[in-house]
Amino acid sequence: NAGVTQTPKFQVLKTGQSMTLQCAQDMNHNSMYWYRQDPGMGLRLIYYSASEGTTDKGEVPNGYNVSRLNKREFSLRLESAAPSQTSVYFCASSWTHGSNQPQHFGDGTRLSIL
Amino acid sequence: ILNVEQSPQSLHVQEGDSTNFTCSFPSSNFYALHWYRWETAKSPEALFVMTLNGDEKKKGRISATLNTKEGYSYLYIKGSQPEDSATYLCALHNNNDMRFGAGTRLTVKP
Lengths: 114, 110
What we know:
The complex is a heterodimer. Chain A is mainly β. Chain A has strands at about 5, 10-15, 20-25, 30-35, 45-50, 55, 65-70, 75-80, 85-95, 105, 110-114. In chain A, the strands form two sheets. In chain A, strands 2, 4, 5, 6, 9, 10 and 11 form a seven-stranded mixed sheet that branches. In chain A, strand 7 (about 65-70) and strand 8 (about 75-80) form a beta hairpin. Chain A is globular and about 35 Å long. Chain B is mainly β. The interface between A and B is medium-sized, with 24 and 24 residues.
């Protein structure tokens, strides 16, 4: 019963390098999300995909791109990593994008950019 | 702007104490308020989703209330146990966006 699986769990990059974070869910959920979590701050939404084939910007989309590869998978790409993107990244999914739908989270990817 | 504030930032209680903390949010254009429990080294887990003014939800010793007119929700834990130690997050869902508070970190001492 995997739920939401994120890879990798840890990554260290140099400034300017590119990286794709992978996320997959096995709950047949329609909606998927990417968040970042920084010390002293709440989870902040980067991008979301309300359904397969759609993606929308969240609160902090600059410097990121996403791809909803299929219903199961939603990837987050950093084209040219910057130190300000050092963070813990969480992927989540929900049955639909409705406001009454709880989200199910992965275990996170800890990303450090030097 | 959806500012979600949680207080206190952290809380230390003794085993057996009851406790509560607050989530404040803009009362206009309300859709839903979520509570999550986040244990160290794990991922956040959904506790409650609340949509109606006056909603009360309960799961074991944990309960929550919602006041959408004044823009706050309370989370209560009755008879705290060490396993309740976690960060409790609230989040406001406005139908396009989910905004999280910074959380209340609860430590329950045996």
